[in-house]
Design a protein that fits this description.
Helix content of chain A: 25-40%
Shape of chain A: elongated
CATH architecture of the largest domain in chain A: 3-Layer(aba) Sandwich
Order of helices and strands of chain A: EHEHEHHEHHEHEHEHEHEHHEEHHEE
Number of strands of chain A: 13
Strand content of chain A: 15-25%
Subunit structure (chains A, B): Homodimer.
Protein name (chains A, B): Pyrophosphate--fructose 6-phosphate 1-phosphotransferase
CATH topology of the largest domain in chain A: Rossmann fold
Largest sheet of chain A: 5 strands, mixed
Radius of gyration of chain A: 23 Å
Number of helices of chain A: 14
Structural class of chain A: alpha/beta
Enzyme class (chains A, B): transferase
Largest interface: A-B, 82 and 80 residues
GO biological process, one term (chains A, B): fructose 6-phosphate metabolic process
Number of domains of chain A: 2
Oligomer: homodimer
Cofactor (chains A, B): Mg(2+)
Chain lengths: ~425, ~425
């Protein structure tokens, strides 16, 4: 096998552990210097390849690369930029080949969710369709946990842990004060299309009456009357009500609830997300004092409370991606195979990119209780292993020490620049 | 000294470490069983005393009490219920005396902020004014950090750490994506009347260009033009802009900005807090893609990322309160005296309740940069010691193990119930 350089890019929304995958890719590539030369990272993801804006990771020390394992965000920058089909925008693919040729790149590692695996799949076809063979491996990542085949997606476990811990903690606060103050607390979490993250909030409850008392899933159309009855019952039975609400909650007509609010003086839909809207409904109809929180990026950046399992799996898929490439596999993505839930055992598997691309894994209806406001034991036994273990970053002066890479640019070799659409 | 029982109550908004103070009070009282009998806790704070709803903490095991040290929220329940002056509502004080007499209570430990220290001060006067002498010690607690005399308040350091860590983490996320996605991120934090918590966000920055790029303080009237210029400059210079906004930001007229929004169809002020409002201004005037988060209770319940210094101080003021009482002091509150900032050294002092009650400590103007959007070195050297060290709770199945006390009621001895106003 002729020695070639590798290209690695981060794609889509970043996570608390996507850099752990980068760490796995780069550390493993460094161990295979007989076949992999330098690892070039795309600055801001695939855009870095298109604009020939490459980062030379060989200029980073071993300790800097090791520190990626405990650093959240995307160390090389990421982007939301989906390549179109070969027919629709052949110029992009030709440009990729130009850049890859110029920098002697023979390996393509693409770290992302569903759209990104689709891109990786398209790039893997460059050999057949445009005569530039390249070893192309997807590296799974998404807080949305919606990739098919793999049992779970690196990134999700840490968000799940953050949400479950936050619900447990905030619930103790609300319970303390409920007699004379806030009785209803709403935590809005991510998950526009699927309720995986909202479901994770349910793990905080261990026995009858524990928070969260209500979970609002995107999968269950919002029924105001039933919801209000449930809130009221929770306040009457337990003294308070903690609600985990997915940002993607919809009404019966399928509209996002967060977009059905009133409009401001400019006619814009009222900003404010789902949580304040739900709070308003509670206030108007039940009159209870409420508080609400919107975790937003905090939940997917919270490396300080990352799941140890998630960190290990994120690293493992990065490592496996390089190992797959080294042994000549192509157009595949490492997966996580669950061997057992209790005790939790897992191993790395492999899935063809063509089977991963553009398939979304839904939250099974069987994970949601029949009435639609909670999770089932089946969900709990799926979710609980994914939040196991703590993997604390180092601290200095009271704050986590996260690495800032040098991110030195690779000298450009092409004369022409490329204009992004 | 005749042996008497003690009454302990938690008051006002709870914190990640108020139970550490409870732990200090109860463990220390148990060591002084020659003069302190049982510690009765008020269920839901002072309300528990007025309604004779007492909790017998002697029924809790040593290990359960020890676990209070790492459990957030208020383990006995708290309330917002301020006693009026003796003249205005003498009935309440007479009732307190009835309950204290009935349960042979000679010590009163009141764990709270400014209003609570005022109540403690009034109760300390019962001896002189109503002939029921009681040893009365305040135990400081408030995330708002606004008690006078003490260098800082237990509860604040942990919120400060949560906010600084969250800003640092979310900023890495935003920076990763800014090229093609979110350029402006706003984190709304607590502090309706003072910018202590917002200031803590500033500690996340270590060098020029680090987030947060802007802090909005309640102390600095919001000037939209200057703010927008600063946002725009940050995006142009660094590629993104992270803003920490106190919920208490006001306009030049002194109105809370969060209350100046549009009104909905019912004429209610638009809900949604300060962060979405600031986001809307950014979108309308600059057109940048934004995200916002509202930490709300998550910030003051986040025991998982508590400051070790804060936990130690919270315990120490509880312990000192009992020691003060045992050695015959009265109408005082333990304080934290800073001996040195670097290295940080502190010790416990004492302040008369009369000097603490109803005095608020403002954030010094010298802690805010002249332009009003950042913190000074003076602020940094004050704040940094308070977030030092991690004090992780134990975990089981991926979640922190927080104690739920039995909270067994003390048998009522009074025939008459008491109606709260």
């Amino acid at each position: 096998m002729a020695k070639k350089n590798a290209f690695y890019a981060q794609s889509g929304g970043v996570t608390a552990v996507i850099n752990a995958s980068a760490c796995g890719v780069i550390e493993t590539a460094r161990q295979h210097s007989e076949v992999i030369g330098k690892v070039y990272a795309g600055r801001n993801g695939i855009i870095g390849a298109l604009t020939e804006d490459l980062i030379d990771t060989s200029q980073e020390s071993d300790s800097a690369i090791a520190a990626l394992r405990h650093t959240p965000g995307g160390a090389f920058g990421s982007c939301r930029y989906k390549l179109k089909g070969l027919e629709e925008n052949k110029a992009e693919y030709e440009r990729l080949i130009e850049v890859f040729k110029a920098h002697d790149i023979g390996y393509f590692f693409y770290n992302g969710g569903g759209d990104s695996q689709d891109t990786a799949h398209k790039v893997s076809q460059l050999g057949d369709q445009l005569g530039y063979p390249i070893t192309c491996i997807g590296v799974p990542k998404t807080v949305d946990n919606d990739l098919p085949i793999t049992d779970n997606c690196p990134g999700f476990g840490s968000v799940a842990k953050y949400v479950a811990v936050s619900v447990r903690e905030a619930a103790l606060d609300v319970a303390s004060m409920a007699r004379t103050s806030t009785k209803v607390f709403i935590l809005e979490v991510m998950g526009r299309h699927a309720g995986w993250i909202a479901a994770a909030g349910g793990v905080a409850a261990e026995q009858e009456g524990d928070a969260p008392h209500i979970i609002l899933f995107p999968e269950i159309p919002f029924e105001q009357e039933q919801f209000l009855q449930k809130v009221d019952a929770s306040v009457k039975d337990y003294g308070y009500c903690v609600i985990v609400a997915s940002e993607g909650v919809r009404n019966k007509e399928g509209q996002f609830l967060s977009e059905t609010g009133t409009r401001d003086a400019f006619g814009h839909a009222q900003l404010g997300g789902l949580a304040p809207l739900v709070a308003q409904i509670v206030r108007e109809k039940l009159g209870y004092k409420y508080h609400w929180a919107v975790a937003d990026y905090l939940q997917r950046a919270a490396r300080h409370i990352a799941s140890q399992v998630d960190v290990e799996q994120a690293y493992a898929v990065g490592k496996a991606a390089v190992e797959f490439a080294v042994r000549g596999e192509n157009a595949v993505m490492p997966t996580i195979i669950r061997k057992s839930s209790d005790p939790y055992r897992w191993e790395i598997g492999s899935a063809p990119l063509k089977d991963v691309a553009n398939v979304e894994k839904d939250l099974p209806r069987s994970f949601i209780t029949p009435e639609g406001f909670g999770i089932t034991e089946e969900a709990r036994s799926y979710l609980t292993p994914l939040i196991q273990g703590e993997d604390y970053p180092p601290y200095k002066n009271g704050l986590p020490v996260y690495v800032q890479l040098k991110n030195a640019p690779v000298e450009k070799k092409l004369k022409e620049s490329f204009t992004l659409r």
